[in-house]
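Structural prep section.
Before we set up the soaks we want a predicted structure of the protein with protoporphyrin IX containing FE in place, mainly to decide which crystallisation condition to try first. Input record follows.
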Amino acid sequence: MPVPSPTAWPIVGNSLEYKKNPPLYLQHLASTYGDVCRFQLGRNPCYLFSHPDAIREILVTQAKHLGRSMGYEWMKTFLGSGLLTSSGETHQRRRRLAQPAFRNSRIDAYAPNMLTTTQKWIATWQHGDKLDIHQEMMRLALTIIGQAMFHENLSKLVVEIGEAVDVFMRYWQSNFSPIAKLMHALPLRLNREFNEAKTMFYQRMEAIVQNHREQGTDEGDFLSMLLLAQDDEGGAALSNKEVVEELVTITIAGHETTANALSWSWYLLASHPEMAAQVEEEVDRELAGKPPTVADLERLTYCTAVFKESMRLYPPAWSVGRCAINDITLANVKVPAGSMIYVSPYLVHRDARWWPQPERFMPKRWINGQHSEQPKYSYLPFGAGKHQCIGERFAMLEGILLMALVVQKWRFELDPEHEVTPEAFITLRPKNGIKVTLQARCS
Ligand code: HEM
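Run finished without errors. Recording the tokens verbatim:
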């Protein structure tokens, strides 16, 4: 039976409709054509699978027959062949080398640093300040990742790096144009900005690697572990170039996603004061004014529920793509070699078959195992299978600790003049940020 599909235009396929609002377009496809459908981005055939059983096949059981989709290939222009973009044996080797830095015990040891950095950050806030809480979260998360992963104070670089990441996102997005190759070859402003941003970023990271090599100390962090990793002959397992690629990858993947998850959490809490009050009540009761620690996590059940529920509604990694290396059958559908295969956490997280009242923000879904009835792959903010997010525990720890710490002192009031809407780049960001006024909580 042919796979249902919308009419595709010559050359552009369905790119124009897709580009207007990618998550909504995927939702439209799934509601019109069902759990499997075919569409076209440019000339590339794409298959969208939205049933949890198919998702398990794609990400877990048949994963070894699938490579990374073209979206990841485009990321290689700024990430190189790091953990997030590599596949096959290169990926396996890199994952093996990076894994020790992400052991639970190691991640938990990063917590005091996360807290100190956040405490210093929010100490600069004043009652009545108007700020973009999304930008604050981006910069704070970047500072945290630099300190935890390579003992480097990135606070002086946050603006520069933040701007570079914005340029990378715009450059990545420009690949959707049917004349992207031509555009990238012309002396356009975006290309110039991209090259400058990339040069700056790589120079900063190379300097950090050089500095660590010279000091030669084992800080027990991600960078030290990469530098000390050895191959079977006792030589360095990773070249300088490979180490830098991993640093760039971790810096970007490790702050952009968590910052978005936190930004959406603040937005949802500010729009639902009754739930914000429950977070405050829990934090006041469980912490009694003390800063949170890893040991408190288990008891911060409502904070955890809020963080999970905001990633359900606004999954930072809203789409995950693969590519069929050979012809393959997935969910009883024959997918030809070279096709792109899409799974969208955004789509499956808002599917009414698994999530009653899917559009509603309801943290209580996550309390007392209420969500445990749902099929396993109906919730996957961190992906699944061999590419499952290596930083999941780091992100959960950072998200919950930071939420509890901030809520002890601050409340956010949304600017009623500023409309908050999601914008899908590689991650799901709030378009034009989230403008708030700071309200100090009386203590
Ligand atoms: C809320 C925060 C985060 C979310 C929602 C998130 C989401 C994801 C998802 C969905 C994937 C799988 C991509 C795929 O299957 O193709 C992934 C992979 C990855 N993430 Fe995260 N992530 C988060 C935080 C982090 C952090 C804090 C780090 C590092 C400190 C990190 C580093 C990575 C890396 C290196 C990969 C590639 C793993 C591999 O392919 O082996 N992420 N992330």
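Observations: The chain has one domain: 15-440.
Flagged for discussion at group meeting.
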